[in-house]
Specification:
Layout: E1 12-23, E2 26-37, E3 41-45, H1 52-60, E4 67-72, E5 75-76, H2 82-87, E6 90-93, H3 105-112, H4 121-131, H5 133-137, H6 148-160, E7 166-170, H7 178-193, E8 197-202, H8 205-211, E9 214-219, E10 222-228, H9 229-233, H10 236-242
Parallel strand pairs: 3-8, 3-9, 6-7, 7-8
Antiparallel strand pairs: 1-2, 1-4, 4-5, 9-10
Helix pairs in contact: 3-6
Length: 245
């Protein structure tokens, strides 16, 4: 496979090329084509049952497409297992965080470092503690006893422990109070500004578009809109459907 470029001209770190995905005989995604450039922040918007989470699962390798290709850094990874994709630079912050509640904060972070390539654990731990000082204070506390906002910090930090080049985020605002949603998106922006490419799957279109470079809109498994964040923020159809206008 040859290298491709994202719509803004950056070299594509991730590309989905005409991907169609089924669960048994039910088609979930149809002809999905999208990209995330190196160091780019892209959001994937849509309502319930639009196919957003299935798109992430297809990217990560939890679901195999019926047709089409997934490319990571120019390599066709469509048939690669999940661990190989993680070793090549993917990481995910899953919906509802999915921490190990009976393990400590540090133990959850250690799990994130298992498949990383390069660096030392202490270096990685210092990096995430600089980003989330609260986690250094809570390092010996059981993850299940943390507040919702603190658990979200652990989920992001755990993903960053693998030294990803591409961070996938599934509904990062879900279940958080409004003030914590704003804090969470500030953290995402800071992670992005450190050089990590980010793909956010999100229903909160206003918040996602406020920090994104570009966006795509899914409806019943198809991309129905795409463009720069500013274009989508002012798109009348999107405003009516997702932005409360």
């Amino acid at each position: 496979m040859t290298d491709t470029a994202s719509p803004n001209g950056r070299r594509a770190l991730l590309s989905l090329d005409d991907v169609t995905t089924y669960y048994a005989q039910i088609r979930i995604l149809e002809g999905i084509t999208l990209s995330v450039g190196e160091g780019e922040l892209v959001c994937l918007l849509g309502g319930n049952a639009s196919g957003k989470s299935t798109t992430l699962k297809t990217i990560l390798g939890l679901v195999r497409p019926r047709s089409g290709h997934v490319l990571l850094d120019g390599n066709d990874v469509t048939d690669w297992p999940v661990p190989d994709r993680i070793r090549r630079g993917m990481a995910i912050v899953p919906e509802n965080r999915r921490l190990f509640p009976e393990m400590t904060v540090r133990e959850n972070l250690e799990l994130g470092a298992v498949l990383r390539d390069g660096g030392t654990f202490d270096e990685d731990l210092e990096r995430v503690h600089n980003l989330f000082p609260r986690l250094d204070e809570r390092r010996g506390q059981l993850a299940g006893t943390l507040s919702g906002g603190e658990q979200q910090m652990v989920a992001v930090a755990r993903a960053l422990m693998s030294r990803p080049r591409l961070l996938l985020m599934d509904e990062p605002s879900m279940g958080l109070a409004p003030t914590l949603v704003q804090q969470n998106f500030r953290i995402i922006k800071e992670v992005h500004e450190s050089g990590v490419a980010v793909l956010i799957v999100e229903q909160n279109a206003n918040m996602a578009l406020s920090i994104a470079d570009r966006g795509y809109v899914l409806s019943t498994g198809r991309i129905v809109l795409e463009g720069s964040a500013s274009e989508l923020l002012h798109h009348e159809e999107l405003k009516r459907a997702y932005l409360g206008a």
